[in-house]
Amino acid sequence: MQEVIKKLLKISPGLKGKEIAKKLGYEKKQVNSFLYSNPDIFLRDDNFRWSLVPQPEIRIEFEENTWMDCNSFENSLLKAETLLHENNNAIYFVVPENCKILLDAAARFLALCNQFSNGGNTVTIDFSDCQTTLSYFNRIGFVDHLDKNVVILPHRPSESGAEKYRGNSDTVVEFGSLNPDEADKELINQLTDRFVQQSDRKFEAAAFTVFSELIDNVSEHSETPIPGFAALQKYGGKRDHIQTVVSDSGLGIAATLVPSLQTHYPDIYKIHNSKDFNVQLVIDLLTKGGISRFGSGRGLGFKSSREQTIKFDARLSVRQENFSVCIEYINGEIEEITKKTNLQTIYGTHLCFDFFVD
């Protein structure tokens, strides 16, 4: 009963007990008894109208007059005075004037909002001073995939720009849902076609392999009711590059693999409780391969993606629950590996490929 009343009062605060009972199909006496028994959740005014007790709120403001990539997004989260997902019931994001959000940051932002809202918490995104970014988010499908309970200010768009213009741009693949029960072949083909259009036909097989494997992994390993998603966009600037994101809110790479280590990789399992083990496990998986959830029989993990990625000048970033790893390739060789730890919690696996095509 608590959750259905909370949901109703989020949408329609200020209802009397009898009105709540009528809308939800409960007995008036039962509803009033429940409301009075939970004063920490439900607040009654002098006119016997009920609303939710104001919730503790985290306020996060992004930087203005800049392009926000995943690094600046993470820095904004770290400025919060408390840990996300821990004893907090509301989060308020402010997108300030001229804050342009790149696809890699948008993917992590979308996942975090959906996770927080799915947990029964209040999420607000205020675009009042930057409605051009709201328009962009509507165009690429961010708004379509945002939990319906998330509040958008000044208002949620009444029409989906992604649905209206889907497929009309040669440089964009709008956010598409990843079904946890079955890989989306149409989305894989869209990502591959757009990539080939903006690079070279010789990369078609490699691109298809990368996108197929990443999306298949979401379908097979995510284990979450929150849908994953993928998207693509080409950017100009000093170096033309294609940015592709694949994101899910599931268990994450390390959490998925660790239970199988004792059976299939006992030598690795011996050190699974060591400091930064999860970080190194992800690095080894992405750079060396040879580790999978099911041993050598099936579940190749990211083996094929790794082999194909070296054909590009590419940058691969992988965001896990509290850390990220970034691997840069130049001329088929690993140029640099960067890792960041102690990040704010975002569940799941969030991958971003930057393919340089100049």
Notes on the protein architecture:
This protein is α/β, with parallel strands linked by helices and 358 residues long. α2 (17-24) packs across α3 (28-36). A hairpin with a 2-residue loop joins β14 (324-330) and β15. The longest helix is centred in the middle third of the chain and has 18 residues, at 204-221. It is 38% helix and 24% strand. The protein has helices at 2-11, 17-24, 28-36, 70-78, 103-118, 131-140, 142-145, 161-165, 185-198, 204-221, 253-264, 266-269, 277-287, 303-309, and strands spanning 15-16, 42-44, 49-52, 57-61, 66-68, 90-94, 99-101, 122-126, 151-153, 172-178, 228-235, 241-248, 313-319, 324-330, 333-340, 349-356. It has three domains: 2-52, Arc Repressor Mutant, subunit A; 55-165, Transcription Regulator spoIIAA (2-Layer Sandwich), CATH 3.30.750; 167-358, 2-Layer Sandwich (Heat Shock Protein 90). The strands form four sheets. It has a seven-stranded antiparallel beta sheet, with helices on both faces. Strands 4-6-8-9 form a four-stranded parallel beta sheet, covered by helices on one side. The protein starts with a helix and ends with a strand.
